[in-house]
Amino acid sequence: MTSTARNMLIFFKKELNIYQLEKDWNELLTFFTSNQPVSNLYYLHFFKNLYFVLFMTLLFLIIPFLLESLKITKLKKFASYSSKINNTIYGFFSLGMFIFGIIGSYHRFQSFKLNEIVCQPSNREPFENVRFIYYFSKIWEFLDICLVILQGYPINIHFRVHHTTTLFLAWLSMTTNCPFDAPAILINCFMHFFLYLYFAGCSFFFWIVRILGFLQLIVGIVFSIIVIIMEEFYHMNCDYNNNNETIIINSTTRDKYRWAIYIGLFFYLSYFFLFLVELGVFSQKKTVVIVTKQKQQ
Known about the structure:
α3 runs parallel beside α6 and α7 packs antiparallel against α10. 72% of the residues lie in helices and 3% in strands.
């Protein structure tokens, strides 16, 4: 555990290099001033810089509280209309991401072997592009919580914590090349298709959303535990041969990123706990409504 903590400190010290931030910022300015093609967006490292992630996370934390304190009532109708449009577009965007991700990683899942499912080479094309777009889409996803607040609805703690932290979690898994990135991203995109269409008004997706929401958290928790057991107790790490085929070998390839799995597991367990709390709150409110109706009758 001492080496794991040391590797984590080394990683964050490297990522918080102020000179790298200046270099990435200059690269961003060059992109806008030299008419480079939009396809080069992936190579703009500024958007993958930890300072950028922390700054956006801070905004995600402050903006909801600011909107709640301002209590802007004049924008309710606009926010309601905008929310339906945004949720519909984001839902179908998530479906497109899911399909593109399946096409990019389909051959990895054909054998249904542990090394083919858990150890995904998500930093290989074309899934590498899916992973970056998925990470960047977490900024778009945050718009949802702002529109909900502008409509006058209260925000529960699960909703707030999830939208505040998912950008960092997506960045961490992308930067450390999380071995089970592919299945985690695919099931999240598939769930978001139903979730955001449900938010847009498709109420018949409710139980599908609940089941898929529960399933994606279980997948994250189980896969994290499997990788931890593989690496900590059997000293087996995910690696790939020259043909880009997944294999499991005894090596120290991922030792320097082992701590990231523990952080990911912590987030998954936190989301799972808050998900259970949300289910309890929902059930309680539903019971109160039923009792109230019976009393009125």
